[in-house]
Design goal:
Blueprint: E1 2-6, H1 10-21, E2 27-28, H2 36-46, E3 50-53, H3 62-70, E4 77-82, H4 88-93, E5 98-101, H5 106-117, H6 121-126, E6 141-146, E7 149-154, E8 158-164, E9 167-172, E10 175-179, H7 183-190, E11 194-198, E12 201-204, E13 208-213, E14 219-223, E15 230-233, H8 235-246
Parallel strand pairs: 1-2, 1-3, 3-4, 4-5
Antiparallel strand pairs: 6-7, 8-9, 8-12, 9-10, 11-12, 13-14, 14-15
Helix pairs in contact: 2-3
């Protein structure tokens, strides 16, 4: 995959170039770009597969560059590499597939580049566009801040959301992440795909396998992908879960 580096700091460009060059399967394109206008021109001429893009630059900043790329039919994948961690939400609204905070670590860069390989170019531009849909459509991916940086989790891989005090735990096919989003907001956005089984829990409708009553009279819900681990269903939600299961 061909990678274009965009950063207004020469040392940052050199460091990223060296790190990418040490990874198998990636080629750093020359020249690199030191501002947004130059980046757009080089993207037109060099046709990179991936752009490693700084955010704060003179002239057009990285977010503005990525927004312009979203308007194109076949944009490259964008991975932000920035010293600032406060632009993550804006980054994914312009279809970024990665958000790395400087100093970028080699393992995080490698993981982000691998993630950029998965969707095709047209899909990359559409990753977060549903979140900005004027019709209020739900997101197709959920972003979470982890020790690896910012991860994008496809909605169809989410098994459940469980609220615990300030945070919500998202359980997905590959593990768990914490979200700083209210459970009610998630229910409002994804109510067609998830059902509330407890005041603090939403589960994926398509993951439901069976409802079971315990000897003590409690109700447990078993979900596909949880290795027989069960979630408690509150009494007020049992009837709704049973009704839903009749239509699955």
């Amino acid at each position: 995959m061909n990678v274009l580096i965009v950063d207004d700091e020469p040392l940052a460009r050199e460091r990223l170039s060296r790190m990418v060059g040490e990874l198998e399967g990636y080629c750093v394109l020359e020249p690199s770009a030191c501002n947004g206008e130059e980046a757009l021109s080089l993207i037109d001429s060099l046709k990179p597969d991936v752009v490693l893009l700084d955010i704060r630059m003179p002239g057009l900043d990285g977010l503005q560059v990525a927004a312009k790329l979203c308007e194109r039919e076949a944009p490259p994948a964008v991975i932000f590499c920035t010293a600032h961690d406060e632009f993550a939400l804006e980054a994914f609204q312009v279809s970024a597939v990665g958000y790395l905070v400087k100093p970028v670590r080699a393992e995080n860069l490698s993981a982000a580049l691998k993630k950029a390989e998965r969707p095709n170019r047209v899909q990359l531009a559409a990753l977060t566009r549903p979140a900005l849909d004027s019709n209020g459509g739900p997101r197709s991916h959920i972003s979470a801040r982890t020790r690896k940086g910012i991860e994008l989790i496809p909605l169809d891989q989410v098994i459940y959301f469980i609220a615990d005090h300030k945070y919500v735990t998202l359980r997905h096919a590959g593990g768990e992440v914490l979200l700083d989003e209210p459970l009610k907001a998630l229910e409002d956005e994804f109510g067609d795909c998830f059902v509330r089984i407890h005041r603090n829990a939403l589960v994926a409708r398509e993951r439901i396998e069976r409802l079971q009553r315990t000897p003590l009279g409690h109700f447990q819900l078993f979900l596909r992908g949880m290795n027989e681990e069960a979630l408690i269903v509150s009494r007020r939600h049992v009837a709704g879960v049973r009704k839903l299961m009749h239509h699955l």
